[in-house]
Amino acid sequence: SPPLWCYVERALDRLEPTQRLMVVMAKTFRWSETRIAAYLQAEGEQLSPGDVKARLQFAYQALEAALPKDIQVIYLGAVGSEDLASEAAIDPELETLLSPVAL
Hints:
The chain is an all-alpha fold. The chain is 66% helix and 0% strand.
């Protein structure tokens, strides 16, 4: 929905630049951790695919935590801190928002 998208954009702006870039590459362009690591290595960052995976999980948690609590409840069904982003994946609603738009 447009309100959620607005809040997701604001939450993305609160991430560190490398986190934001990795989230966009992983979720919008569906790049693997290996491809993201190779891209970042070409840009001077020394990250392994394992490092990228760990940083992505942290970025997903930071992204979801950056959303206001009421928005989390309304759109993501969160009722408490235990319902925030799991260590395994980003929330499906955020996943949908970050996916490429079909033309």
